[in-house]
Amino acid sequence: MNSQGRDTKPHDVAVLEDVKTFTGNKALQLEEALIFELDNHGVSGVDLPEPATGSLRLGKVKARKGIGLPHLSEPEVVRHFTRLSQKNFGIDSTMYPLGSCTMKHNPRLNEKMARLPGFSDVHPLQPVSTVQGALELIDQLAHWLKTLTGMPAVAMSPAAGAHGELCGLMAIRAALHARGEGHRTRVLVPESAHGTNPATAAFCGFTVDSIPAEENGRVSVEAVKAKLGPDVACIMLTNPNTCGLFEPQVKEIADAVHAAGGYFYCDGANYNAIVGRVRPADLGVDAMHINLHKTFSTPHGGGGPGSGPVVLSDALAPFAPMPFVVHGKDGFDLVEHAAGTDTQPFGRMKGFHGQMGMFVRALAYIMSHGADGLRQVASDAVLNANYIKESLKDTMSVSFDGPCMHEALFDDRFLKGSGVTPLDFAKAMIDEGFHPMTMYFPLVVHGALLVEPTETESKATLDQFIATLRHLAERAKAGDAAYFQAAPRLTPRRRLDETAAARKPILRWTRPAGTAQAQAAE
Amino acid sequence: MRYLPLTEADRREMLARIGVPDVDALFRDVPESARLKAPIAGLPMHQGELEVERHLSRLAAKNVTAGSVPFFIGAGAYKHHVPASVDQLLLRGEFLTSYTPYQPEVAQGTLQYLFEFQTQVALVTGMEVANASMYDGATATAEAVLMANRITKRNKAILSGGLHPHYRSVTETTCGVMGMEIVAAEPDPMDLEDLAGRIDDRTACVVVQTPSLFGHVRDFTSLCEAAHAKGALVIVAVTEIVSLGLLTPPGEMGADIVVAEGQSIGNALNFGGPYVGLFATREKFVRQMPGRLCGQTVDADGKRGFVLTLSTREQHIRREKATSNICTNSGLCALAFTIHMSLLGEAGYTKLARINHANAVVLAEKLAGVAGVEVLNEGFFNEFTVKLPKPAAGIVEALAAKGVLAGVPVSRFYPDVAGVENLLLVAATETNTVGDMDELVRALEEVL
């Protein structure tokens, strides 16, 4: 009953997918055309003054005619993008149990701080005397990263985790060349590594030598030793690894690689499982990138921007790329050229000085947690993952025994004979209001389902998630494959044809043939 | 620790279900000697929102902001006005806190704006297709050179002396490691270089920039013809994307790949990042294009929808055979670009470009009137090079002390190159008033 005393019980219990409306809209779920199809010729969403002068100084270059951009007023643009936003899941709306991706709460304090004009409205090439606060911030973040990892140096400029990997391998390459050992061109990469690891090594001109995982999902020191030789440049080890496991022999592996003259690159994508509890320096790491957006919560933003500083050992520090911040005699200074320094930088990773906006967010997050809170971050991330694993081990198939780190790995054995694939299972989760976990990764197990709850999920949410997965697993086992194969039913779009998209790619909108504008453009 | 929802009672209950006495037991695979028993020393404990705000606000206050002074710095990053709606839309949690759209059914919002972004970038650059963004203009340039290497199977790249030094340096670093030969022309303040004459049968590509570092606007039609005749590609870099609201786009001049910095549209200066790299090319090269791509398709009901596509080029499929190691893009910055560009529309974008150029013309005339100051450019967009009677670095410092941020001394990029000490790069945008320009002129006359 509502406040007017009228019956609010729905008379028609048809599910949303069966309801046909005239517009295609379904109440709050609104259809939205492309911005180009909303063209309202002649209007603009900004009011600009008339140019100060009509005369042009373009030398020999002609002024252009006709671009083909649409015209819309401000309210039309605001409504368009608001409607688009309503077609997305975000961590603000639902749990994203994405293994290896670390989707945790994104505090708005970080956003507020990054938007302070003192950070956002500062040009990278202002005189250093006018950007002392920005340089101090970079220095403070660098101090936190070095202290937390126990490493002596950090290269701040890489733009993302994979870019950080590239930075680390370039530093290793430069160090080897400086040692006169440019013949070391083989990189050992366990098969449980992120796909970026072998891509990075190859991109850097190394050959990739794969190390198979043991039965227990780990890399053994014996397997590494068998691969070592005078041509090995380094090992790229992800720790905790992509199966969600800590590599117990990591120190022995590091020692063996060092003894053979190679370096130890650690993929730090999973650093938030150990932050504040383990210092990578104590494991023998020479270089490790830190995905600030993962461990220190700068928003993923639908796929970036990221930020991937790389901590470096004493052996690699001199080869770090330009630029870097130093303590000068009149405050902070920015070193942009190697001349006059005792460093041998391998070059430059990106324009200007790195992802400053991400640095502000990361530092705000780090300070909000402090040394005590970051330790708790790792503890809770690991606790949450183990809680999920233990709660579902009787219903789903857990891949490896023993405690996991911040992510729990299941595989598709529990779906055997049901006709339900991991993909079907994931799509059914969407209808239940959960983003799917990571599927088919890592490659070490068949039909992987990698669940990472992160430390910012409450027990109540975890319990609901566990109950939902339990229900879906039982439904799959009960033979209701058709239900899963038709999922998701309640999303703005049902399963999309990715094969057709790749076969004949349509990568941009084009004006339909025969329209007036299309003819005018001919 | 306001971001952590678990209570002590929750933790106890959860540990009991797992069957371990404490959380330390879950870390038992970590070697005993590497397990820290207490919070790491030398770092502060957690702080409340007020304390964090106070600290960061104090750091921010130590910087001079572009909006607070007469401001004429460009050289690859530009101060433009961003409409308020851009940031408000960006802050919507469904955009801000969403993940890479690998599950398209719950990411149509992200995928559709990426498709719109790709279309806008293709239109603005005059090219056929674009990707869903790169880290920034500099890394996009390096990726373009590698792409030219894949297409032509040739190993040499010729870089213009008008290419932004950071773009040059990133290209040398990245492509050098890949075994490419990078030939960079000397800095070219007068725009006199002959790149066509340097192309040989080993040349994969020529990389040029418009407007160049020194502000020259350039027509590359004949360079493109010369390059194509010798089987090489032309890559055009654009550091100020607003310029294409006024200038003939590289696509119409015959460019094979256009890379650009998209910061000017929708994105703040941010002390250099994050920015958004634009990358556009010809349809025939699309499978060699790096980065993320969004494509149109249909769903199970036959309705139009969008997905990430052609991922067979990417690291998670091809691993060591991947086209590049890129794993992310600049999604949120691309969204800012798309929203701002949509607000501008064709009329707004072209008018914004006109205003920028007109302000720069006025500024150039005013500066040329200062005794001893010479403007080197014939044609320019919103930035040009002036020759001062004294070293520019000192002048810029002296002007900063007077509260005017005047431009970038060329010597900041080229400390070891003789003959550029007195050159200053000066930019004007729609944010500069005539009053700002007069203040620059007055201050300059005082310090010269």
Topology of this structure?
The complex is a heterodimer of chains A (522) and B (448).
Chain A: H1 74-85, H2 108-114, H3 117-120, H4 132-149, E1 153-155, H5 161-178, E2 186-190, H6 196-203, E3 207-211, H7 221-227, E4 232-238, H8 250-259, E5 263-267, E6 287-289, H9 292-295, E7 310-312, E8 324-328, E9 331-335, H10 356-392, E10 397-398, E11 408-411, H11 422-431, E12 438-439, E13 449-451, H12 459-477, H13 481-485, H14 498-503, H15 516-521
Parallel strand pairs in A: 2-3, 2-4, 4-5, 5-6
Antiparallel strand pairs in A: 1-7, 6-7, 8-9, 10-11, 11-13, 12-13
Helix pairs in contact in A: 2-10, 4-10, 5-6, 10-12
Chain B: H1 8-18, H2 49-61, H3 84-90, H4 93-96, H5 108-125, E1 129-130, H6 137-152, E2 156-159, H7 165-177, E3 181-184, E4 203-209, H8 221-229, E5 233-238, H9 250-253, E6 257-261, E7 277-281, E8 294-298, E9 304-308, H10 315-318, H11 331-368, E10 374-375, E11 383-387, H12 392-401, E12 408-409, H13 410-413, E13 423-427, H14 434-447
Parallel strand pairs in B: 2-3, 2-4, 4-5, 5-6
Antiparallel strand pairs in B: 1-7, 6-7, 8-9, 10-11, 11-13, 12-13
Helix pairs in contact in B: 3-11, 5-11, 6-7, 11-14
